[in-house]
What we know:
mainly alpha; ribosomal protein; structural constituent of ribosome; 83% helix; 0% strand; Ribosomal_uL29_sf
Amino acid sequence: MKKTDLKGIKNMEIKDLVKKIKESKVDMAGLFIAREQGVKGSKDIKGIYKKRKDIAQMMTILRQKELVEELSKESKI
């Protein structure tokens, strides 16, 4: 994932980020299925690796946002 894409993801709302993560997981599942079925051009193991890494980065950002939200609620109490 490019740094500019990562910055855009950091500015997303939590619900939009969850939606994007789900879409990426579906895409990655499609890559796995295509590889298993032997679809031409589906031997791209690097593409699966990159997609998995992108999902991990998005999930990390999501968790950071959730923690910040929890801390801001606690500080208001």
